[in-house]
Design goal:
It holds the Pfam family PDDEXK_2. By secondary structure, the chain is mainly alpha-helical. Helices cover 48% and strands 9% of the residues. It has helices at residues 9-22, 94-104, 118-127, 134-183, 188-195, 199-203; strands at residues 38-44, 55-59, 74-80. It has a three-stranded mixed beta sheet with strand order 1-3-2, covered by helices on one side. α4 packs antiparallel against α5. The mean pLDDT is 80.
Length: 205
């Protein structure tokens, strides 16, 4: 699960898939480059400009025709919760049911799909903390701790950047005011008293 976009996100996904492909290589002269298909499935809590639907499949294709190039061995599947807007009634396929549950499981106690398949029932049971085994609960708590630490770090970084931006913006505004005063012939000492800048800073303008 990827909770927020990052620089080179697509490159990172491709890099890990290529590593899985390369690990299939065998030593010796008899290997004929027989490769098993490798699929990357990415669950995203955001959307990107490249996405035009909640599901985006990326494959190797002929640029001129857009058709699949050779036998598909590498495929990236991006599932964006942010772009998934199907209602319960509009979900027809098992995948659509899964994405609906994952996105909305916090909104209801009994999933509308819970009685359809054992897999859906198990998913809802896992979401219920009281139904978890000791091992499942420990894994859940550890993942929750990691997510909370990541989120707290992100919020702090954003707040700090905003605070620095405000300070920088205010300082730049004061310099512009000082520069205008200076053009009007007002002496540096008076400008310093009005703007809070030092006389040295004003003389450098």
């Amino acid at each position: 699960m990827q909770n927020c976009p990052q620089r080179y996100f697509f490159n990172r996904g491709l890099y890990y898939l290529c590593r899985m492909v390369s690990r299939q290589g065998k030593t010796g002269r008899d290997w004929q480059y027989g490769l098993l298909p490798v699929y990357g499935i990415y669950l995203l809590n955001f959307s990107l400009p490249e996405f035009h639907n909640w599901r985006t499949d990326v494959i190797l294709a002929d640029e001129a025709t857009g058709k699949t190039f050779g036998e598909v061995k590498l495929k990236q599947i991006y599932l964006s919760f942010d772009l998934f807007n199907l209602t319960q009634e509009e979900c027809k396929t098992p995948l659509e049911n899964w994405i609906y549950i994952l996105k909305n499981m916090n909104l209801f106690d009994m999933s509308p799909f819970k009685e359809k398949e054992d897999a859906f029932r198990r998913l809802l049971d896992v979401a219920n903390l009281s139904a978890m085994t000791d091992h499942e609960r420990a894994v859940y708590e550890e993942n929750l701790k990691i997510y909370r630490d990541w989120r707290a770090t992100l919020i702090y970084a954003v707040e700090e950047a905003e605070e620095k931006g405000l300070k920088k913006g205010k300082a730049e505004e004061q310099r512009l005011i000082a520069a205008n005063f200076k053009k009007q012939g007002i002496n540096s000492e008076t400008i310093a008293q009005c703007t809070g800048l030092s006389v040295e800073e004003i003389d450098e303008l």
